[in-house]
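Task: complex structure prediction.
Instruction: return structure tokens for all chains below.
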Amino acid sequence: MGTNPVTWLGTPAFPVAARAALGDTQLRRNLRKATHTIRDKRAKAVEELPDWQQLRLAGEAVKDEVLSNLDTYLERFEAAVTARGGVVHWARDAAEANEIVLRLTRAAGAEEVVKVKSMATAEIGLNEALEAGGVRAVETDLAELIVQLGHDRPSHILVPAIHRNRSEIREIFQREMAEAPASDEPRALAEAARRHLRAKFLSARVAVSGANFGVADTGSVVVVESEGNGRMCLTLPEVLITVMGIEKLVPSWRDLEVFLQLLPRSSTAERMNPYTSVWTGVTPGDGPQQFHLILLDNGRTDALADRAGRQALRCIRCSACLNVCPVYERTGGQAYGSVYPGPIGAILTPQLVNDMHDKQAASLPYASSLCGACFEVCPVRINIPEVLVHLRAKAVQAKGKRTPEAMAMAALGWVLADPKRYEAAQKAGSLARYLARGGRISALPWPGSKWTAARDVPAPPAESFRSWWRRTRG
Amino acid sequence: MPGAPRVGLFATCLTDTFFPATARAVVRLLERLGCTVEFPMEQTCCGQMHYNTGYRDAARPLAADYARTFAGYDAVVAPSGSCGGMIREVHPELHGSAPAFTHTYELSEFLVDVLGVTDVGAYFPHRVTYHPTCHSLRMLGVGDKPLELLRAVRGIDLVALPEAESCCGFGGTFAVKNADTSTAMLGDKMRCVLDTGAEVLSAGDNSCLMHIGGGLSRLRTGVTTLHLAEILASTEEEPWAPTR
Amino acid sequence: MADARSTVLGRIRSALADRPAPVTIPRDYHASRPLGDLLALAAERIADYRAEVHAVTADALTSTIAARLAARGARRVIGPVDLPPAWQVPGVDWLLDSPTLSIGELDGSDGVLTGSAVTIAETGTIVLDAGFAQGRRALTLLPDYHLCVVLASQVVGTVPEALARLDPLRPLTFISGPSATSDIELDRVEGVHGPRTLEVVLVTDA
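Output:
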């Protein structure tokens, strides 16, 4: 059993990582600006479609259909890809997928690969694995490039460099690029990235991509993007290697009519993203003449085995839940210690890790106030709060019954299970009034001190409601 | 509902223990509107804190107790969106379906949907802003009902809360387990409250009010927190008096 | 040790041992909807992405192509092998993709002229399917300027209507405006790796 690279080694549990992030005022400003911009835009893009709720229901059902018959759809997809000249590989875990990519790259005689932004390859730590094998991976998505050149970690699913503002990005580019950007205007920064990557695109022999969707019936693969870096990678090199999570399928071509509406409006808040590419196997004379598709498990089948948790596998990586999350807005993505941050990360990462004894992973389901904003915007209706609570129960189970929290909860449960015990405790608690200062309590022992660090506690009143009722109505 | 509806009051453990004035206000309000209100002494807690923290087994008997305690009422009213949500949405999963669960209403839902009133005859001559708590909003979907009720209050100066739908950062044990993040959320919520210039911050949930009010008190802002029920219970003849 | 394929499939089968209930997919979203004048809507929505749209009648197509290329100063212009001769206006050095153009030739050109397969009015999206007057995918990718002809008969209202007309076995490219990014502060700016200028000639009576 190796560790799953979906979480970053050495990241502390969420509350500790969050504390550091909360202290970074520049980060807080950057995040607030970006998340509020995209929230308003998303709301407008969604409002335009009168059948949005019907689309969400259809999206949910299509994904559930795939998950319920995943074996059948994968075999169908494999057959279709193979029939059209593609080569299908299967990978049980990250290490196996990385080995396949490295082997194929070496076989093509390449020392460098160009990459389309892909969560699957970030999840498996492909770049690091390739580097260890002597192959350079060049990220071509602007935000991924910012992260790569900044020797940084991603903090968002769609925009991994969301934690950086324009002047920070300019500084990174000035340091790392041969030709520095003319200014910190987004247009100038985009221009700098274009110049920086142009030669790489034109000479690359091998490209690595992820996939937004795979169509089981036809073997078609879909990549949704904005900048054209995806088209470059999917069109120009001789060899294309696509790493795709096994849950990315839809049954038929028609089903994409749902997702090509749900995804762009939820993700970049556009009616449609600038470019969507669809290809099926190899097309003679057009695009890569060798196509390899790697079907990746890496913990997905563990999530699938969890009846309450498997709905996380519906995720289409739009990041709408991150953009509306009040926790994410304050802490940013790196505090989650995984390529999957935010609400979806808090339910997906622990399931992929599948080990609630891992303290960092087990802390993630608690990184939520359960406000429900994520569920409200999710285009495939993943009930994230429900799964969070479910995973909390698993975390509690893993910790056993002897933790101070478990014992306190058990004691409280015992009190609450009986009205007489409850009332007695209520009366005993009125002693707390003596601790009050001006009707408010401002310091409690741990764990109450976590509360009173920033808030007063109301002193229990002279008479509970129950006592009043008995006295006046009883 | 023919005749005076027989309403069971589920006070919630938090309100029963810390905010009895809210439950007394619910009684006064519902009786003024012609309901027969009863408070069954067997009630304790809906189990939300246990459930949401991962102690599902401890919550299960509480759901059973609730189903039994409130079996015979036309309706059960709870002055809490999050406890109401726990009962209606989660109790059936813990215990199986029961009439008590489906007949449970958050206060504003009961007034507007069941009794069909928005003007409850209240009088409250203060500047008020309203925080629509997350579970009322997203779990129960009460929408604008609390605001409709507040708009009909005579003398009130109701001001809109900026970024009203953002969570205040309470989240039950979240406030302790992720205290720093919770405090950051609280800070932003308090800034929005103070921007309105309101004397009173109201909400339909004492848990969120305890959190925001605790922060406002710590900063000595002078802003009072008050449950929706207490504003609606207040009349010209019997104005709200801040007794705890 | 079992191979990866049978291991993963085996894991899936045991994960689904509870045999989840069969799913019925609700299809009551709108396959189409009344959108008014589709051509006007298409023109408006394409222009929203900051692409220039020129709505003309068929008899003005050739002169519009000539005028747009001249206005752009495009002298060396790429075209697919089956670019209609009438579109190959004089005064331009036409580089047709036969024999196959090199990456350098594509990258060094002033622009590309193609037709298109389907246009989605509601989203302002043009779809290329490597069919008539479109050529292979690289042609519309490397030149910095793409002049694209859309015929009225190719315009549909919604995404579902478009997908019904398309064959997924052909390589497809959905284009909504010039290349763009939202990667800096989640604000959209146009012009990254794909063509930075997209111009559309919408033929209203063809």
